[in-house]
Amino acid sequence: MADTISVLLIDDQPLFVQYLLRFLATEPRIDVVGVAHRAAEGVALCQTLQPQVVLLDLSMPGQSGLDVLPELRAAAPKALIIVLTSHDSAWYQEEARSRGANAFVSKNEVSEHLLEVILGQNAPNPNEKSV
Fold it and tell me: The domain that contains 55 carries what CATH number?
């Protein structure tokens, strides 16, 4: 479908990944084009797939989501990068945004807010200046 939004999911927690896949499958305008369980794998898929949206967990073994954010932004400069995490403190939000994330959704609030952020494109591209 040409009208779908391509999504790449990067998260190391199998149960959460399964939940997200089922949850996102309920929205016909979303097409999950790839799943990565490690940060480096996510960057490689991002370069290859050029998704419109990247869903990124911050806490992963090895390279963290915070560490990989600049690489993801470079790999897909136009992508909407949404951080999904249990770390919902202001520090994590500010740090994630400073490294290239567009939006931040707590894993505890996915069902309430994630579709709104993806479909509404409510977050600005960090490469675009606001007026």
Answer: 3.40.50.2300
Domain residue limits at 45: 8-30+39-120
Adjacency order of strands within the sheet including 80-85: 30-36, 5-10, 53-57, 80-85, 103-106
Amino acid occupying residue 105: V
Tell me 61's DSSP state: S
Q: Do 75 and 100 meet the contact criterion of CB atoms below 8 Å apart?
A: no
User: Would residue 91 count as lying in a domain?
Assistant: yes
Q: Mind listing the pLDDT tens digit for each residue in 32-81?
A: 999 999 999 999 999 999 999 999 998 888 888 889 999 999 999 999 99
Whether this prediction's pTM lies above 0.85 is answered by yes
Domain count, the chain: 1
**CB 67: neighbour CB atoms within 10 A?**
13
Query: What are the counts of helices (DSSP H) followed by strands (DSSP E) for the chain?
Result: 5, 5
Helix (H) or strand (E) holding 123: none
Question: What amino acid occupies position 56?
Answer: L
The answer as to whether 131 is a domain residue is no
